[in-house]
Amino acid sequence: MALSLIAISYASDLPMLAFVGTLGISASMVPPLVMAIVAENLPPRLSGIGFSIITLCQNVGITLSAPLAGYLLQSTQSLQLTFFGISLFSFAGAVTALTIKTK
Q1: Burial tier of 4 (Cβ tally within 10 Å: 0-12, 13-18, 19+)
Q2: CA distance readout (Å), 40 to 19, 34, 37, 50, 72
């Protein structure tokens, strides 16, 4: 996702369409994987709480990401820096996912 976001800021025309498609496909893969990790790592009696925490974090991220992207765009006046700032969250998510210990 992070590489697609950075590539979108430099692409135009047909390559941009390919990068947007790649971003859409990778973004659609994240929620099922996250929910599967919760279901796999928690006992059945705690899975409901785990799903609610994941959903809460997802909604907080959705709520904060649009104003943050707007702030970055307004303060930097650069689409490339804005997309790079957004892609840092994808990198942080990937690092977190790689360091999670599973059962």
Answers
A1: buried
A2: 32, 10, 5, 11, 37
This prediction has a pTM of: 0.70
In a domain? residue 7 = no
Domain interval for residue 57: 30-99
Per the structure, the count of domains in the chain is 1
Query: Are the C-beta atoms of residues 23 and 4 closer than 8 Å to each other?
Result: yes
Kindly state the tokens that stand for 73: 């765009």
pLDDT tens-digit readout, 7-20: 988 988 899 999 99
What pLDDT digit, counting tens, does each position of 37-67 carry?
888 888 889 888 989 998 998 899 889 988 9
- More confident call, 97 vs 5: 5
Burial label for 5, CB within 10 Å (0-12, 13-18, 19+), is buried
